[in-house]
Amino acid sequence: MKLESIRLKNFRAFRHADMRDIPRFCVLVGANGAGKSTLFSVFGFLKDALTENVQVALTRMGGSRGFAEVRSRNTTGPIELEIKFRESDSSALVTYFLAINAENDAPYVQHEVLKYRRGSSGKPWHFLDFSRGEGQAVTNEPDKVTDKTQLNREYQTLKSPDTLAIKGLAQFKKFPAAMALGELISNWHVSDFHIQRARPEQEAGYAEHLSREGENLALVTEFLYKRHRPIFDKVIEKLKQRVPGITQVDAKTTEEGRVLLRFQDGAFADPFLARHVSDGTIKMFAYLVLLHDPKPHPLICVEEPENQLYPKLLAELAEEFRDYARRGGQVFVSTHSPDFLNAAELEEVFWLVKKDGYTAIRRAADDAQVAAYMRAGDQMGYLWKQGFFEGADPQ
Known about the structure:
By secondary structure, this protein is of the alpha+beta class. The protein folds into two domains: 2-24 and 38-188, no CATH class; 192-344, Rossmann fold (3-Layer(aba) Sandwich). 31% of the residues lie in helices and 29% in strands. It contains 13 helices and 18 strands. The chain has an eight-stranded antiparallel beta sheet. The protein has a six-stranded mixed beta sheet with strand order 10-15-16-3-17-18. It is globular, with a radius of gyration of 23 Å. The chain starts with a strand and ends in a 10-residue tail after the last helix. The model has no long low-confidence stretch (mean pLDDT 88).
């Protein structure tokens, strides 16, 4: 699946923001406080709303003030989120729209719509349309319908007005449009890797996917080694190319039931425990594990991957992200590194600009001056440092 666009209204710093023509590998830059982390939080918010409900999602993001804290300051009306995506490059464009409001401090879903555009023109067909816990959903396969009159609609009532309609409908094959969106939202992943969380030994356990902060790295390493050895070997080969001296990585379970992550340096007989290995080595290994997941996420968001990595490794890391995108995934990366940005192409870069307290999103390819310099052979990171990204201070 691939996200094509994101539109936000009254969502924290984004009073009115539209991000269009999103590539499979997308790099975001902007000054501190511009809203890069807030943009990533949209994914977590939708995931919480889907797996729990809108009330829980608002509380996790806004604390006790919930809706009032998440809605942009000095605004009225609902919080609105709209995403457009395709299940494949050849499939129809799908739009999901969600408007959330509150009454007597109780949030509710004011409007929720899932619609498909059939072809390049004409109005999209609504496959899900709910308000305040009531609405209709189409139950037949959209790809097999050639006329709008053939759509089979069922009226449904939800348990609560703060529950998303796609939460329940996504569990049933007879609601294919909702199922596709549910799969996308529930399986995207936001990575904010913390090296110190990955260093300590882990209690023996089981983990297939790297967690947000990476504290289960040893368990995932053990899983790959035992269950997906060809993938594990590929990760090690790539690590050896990027970190001189490293010849092997493994996870050993002690008699006390602790899992130790160990790195073997070819110059020494005994391996080093993770707590004695450089930050850059652990971080590069963690990203390779994430990017070679046997069941890859449809979308990955990575915050500031350059931290603790040598600048010369950043171009190679960017290429790893791009390769993940080529294999069918999608990657969003926020960065403050000109070196990482130098590895980005014109169509891959967006920058965030904060003005009068609110944030707008600009596409580098839409800036004539930046596009001209890139065609002349300049690099994106240097242009950013020289101030050509108006309103996005690199300092």
